[in-house]
Amino acid sequence: MTDTAPTADMPEPGPLPEGRLSGRQAFADLVRQALETAAREGWPRIVLCDADFADWPLGDRDVVASLNAWSTRGRSLQLLAREYGVLRQLHPRFVQWRVTWSHLVEAQACPAATVEELPSLLWSPVWTLQRLDTVRCTMVASRSAERRVALQEQLQQWWLKGTPAFPASTLGL
User: Fold this and answer.
1) Angle at the Cα of 168 (from 106 to 123), degrees rounded to 5?
2) pLDDT 10s per residue in the chain (173 long)?
3) CB 62 within 8 A of CB 69
4) In angstroms, how far apart are the furthest CA atoms of the chain?
5) Model pTM?
6) Element at 47 (helix H, strand E)
7) Which one, 44, 100, 127, 159, has the greatest CB density within 10 A?
8) Which helix (H) or strand (E) holds 81?
């Protein structure tokens, strides 16, 4: 018989926080927690947006494990960035995950956007995390429907300005 109750080593995951937060470590931890929650709760859609994803923990083993657990039929992940060179360089595990699950991932680039213009956020149908200041890493986490809709509209505007990018493979001769 196995014991699946939380232990001191494995605390039961808590609900995603809401409100103003700050700090690089807090941001990375929230991204990890959000993707773990997405897998556990079966979020159908996730949007990740950032200038280059340099500060995101996308290459961490636990993040890729959460994405693997989340990946199933009917799910979609949209990525929006100025460019993907930094992501490719810093997060090779995520790049490999993207290749494996290419049918779930759409990516757009907005190279004309400035770092300050393009929002830094994680959007889902139930919770959002938006970095208001990437230098000081201040952010707002929310379950508010109004905030989700406003951020979704903002993301859609940027998505329409973008062009397909970050292909799963490059064809060559």
Assistant:
1) 30
2) 333 333 334 344 569 999 999 999 999 999 999 999 999 999 999 999 999 999 999 999 999 999 999 999 999 999 999 999 999 999 999 999 999 999 999 999 999 999 899 999 999 999 999 999 999 999 999 999 999 999 999 999 999 999 999 999 865 54
3) no
4) 58
5) 0.90
6) strand 45-49
7) 127
8) strand 76-81
Please, are residues 10 and 3 in contact by the beta-carbon 8 Å criterion?
no
Collect all residues with Cβ–Cβ distance below 8 Å to 65 and sequence separation of at least 6: none
DSSP alpha helix (H) spans, the chain: 24-41, 61-70, 85-90, 92-100, 145-161
Contact 138, 131 (CB under 8 A): yes
Contact 81, 110 (CB under 8 A): yes
Residue among 124, 99, 118 nearest 162 (CA): 118
Residue with tokens 């993207």: 98
- Positive or negative, the CA dihedral 73, 79, 84, 86 is negative
Name the β-bridge partners of 138: 22, 133
Give the C-alpha separation, 55 to 129, whole Å.
14
